[in-house]
Amino acid sequence: MAQANLLKEPKKLLEKLISYDKDHMADSLIAKVRPFLDDPLMDPDKIAAASKALKPVRVWIGAMIKYHDTLKIVNPLREVARLKGEELAVVEAELAKKQAQVKEINDKLAALNADKAALEAKEKALNDEIIDCGLKLGRAEKMITGLEGEKVRWTETVASLG
Known about the structure:
Elements: H1 2-8, H2 10-18, H3 27-38, H4 44-50, H5 55-161
Helix pairs in contact: 4-5
């Protein structure tokens, strides 16, 4: 009866096979089906000899069992990958904070280096001015020394004119 209903509408059967929830197959279902697949009578070639239409169904069932077995290996690895992804996100967020701090420090360093360069330029200008003033002072002292002798002469000239 079930077989007749199942094969009565092949398109519906095909849709059910395509939309089957293969990610959530129960272990108990796999345990019930696996002995049938291990039976030598269930070999795909023997099934094809009996019914060409059932061979793809047998192959599909075998593929679903292999998929289930693979999921048992892959799902724990997926969970590990998810956890590592979360850890990576935390580390990347911390890295972004540290990079922002480094950028801030580098910006401050650049500003300090610019200030240093400006102060060094000002120091050089002031040192040049000190040297220039020293030269002017030396010339002024020579002039004053030279003019002291003239003071005496002018005082005598003013006295003689007076």
